[in-house]
Amino acid sequence: MDSNFWKNKKVLLTGHTGFKGSWLSLWLQKLQVDLIGFSKSIPTQPSLFELADVGKNMTSIMKDIRNIQDISDTVKEHKPDIVHTHAAKAGAIGRLAAINYNVPIILHTFHGHVFSGYYGASKNKIFIMIERVLALITDCILVLSERQHRELVEVYRIAPKKKFQIVPLGFDLNPFLSLSGPCDRFQNNPDSSSPLIVGLIGRLVKVKNPLMALEALSLLKIGREFGGKNHKTIIHAYRQIEKALKEDATFSCFPDFLSTDQGKKTHPIQLRIIGGGPL
């Protein structure tokens, strides 16, 4: 990392109020970047953006990134050296505004994609074509894993390999690859009277492949792991998706999965509904 390259550069960053955007904003500020953030709002409460006082040393603009006039006016006014976009819609509109006003360097980060699992085949083809065109005006595309890089280059052919950079994971996950705590105790002492509690927290939708987790839980269910020990699985979901879960054939192999009665101990898999918004 060449800190001299970034020093005093004017950078327009979309999505600066989110969790990842806030961390990136702090990092760019440390590199003495003249930073302009563009976001619709602060998406969570509490938020890292507020707790870390991210907006203190930057220009923070709260407008809708999906409004091409707003982002175009911002690019025209501030004349950034670099525009760095995130997410699909913001990435498309932000990059179009940047090329229209001759921004020298355009960056885009993929945090995932919608090329499969979200829409039908026709829409998928349209989104892929749009991203291929946008890649032509993008100087560097950032991805967050080797797998994502391989998909975008080899499967969907968004851009040549040389246009991508992989951002390495910032966490060492090796300590989590071995069992410890209650799981370790349970495996070493299968006669323990305490049930094993397995938690699954997240968006239970097909694109997140919850079936993989349920298939893993089935090993407990049929007794091939942990000596057939009694277990309880608690699945946290949000009320907005409760109906969709009950209608989804993905979960038909687990007839007791959709039990919301916490008092019935006959159901080893429980769905606990909690309020709020999507995880």
Structural class category: alpha/beta
Estimate the global geometry from the Cα principal axes: globular
Beta content comes to 15-25%
Q: Mean pLDDT score, rounded? A: 78
Give the SSE order as H and E letters. HEHEHEHEHEHEHEHEHEHE
Placed side by side, the strands forming the largest sheet appear as 3-2-1-4-5-6-7
Spans of at least 5 consecutive residues whose pLDDT stays below 50 are: 222-229, 237-241, 252-279
Biggest pleated-sheet summary: 7 strands, parallel
First-to-last CA distance: 33 Å
The value of Rg in angstroms is: 23 Å
Helix content: 25-40%
User: How many strands appear in the DSSP assignment?
Assistant: 10
Task: Give a brief outline of the structure.
With 279 residues, the protein is of the alpha/beta class. The chain is 34% helix and 19% strand. The strands form two sheets. A seven-stranded parallel beta sheet has the order 3-2-1-4-5-6-7, sandwiched between helices. The chain has a three-stranded parallel beta sheet with strand order 8-9-10.
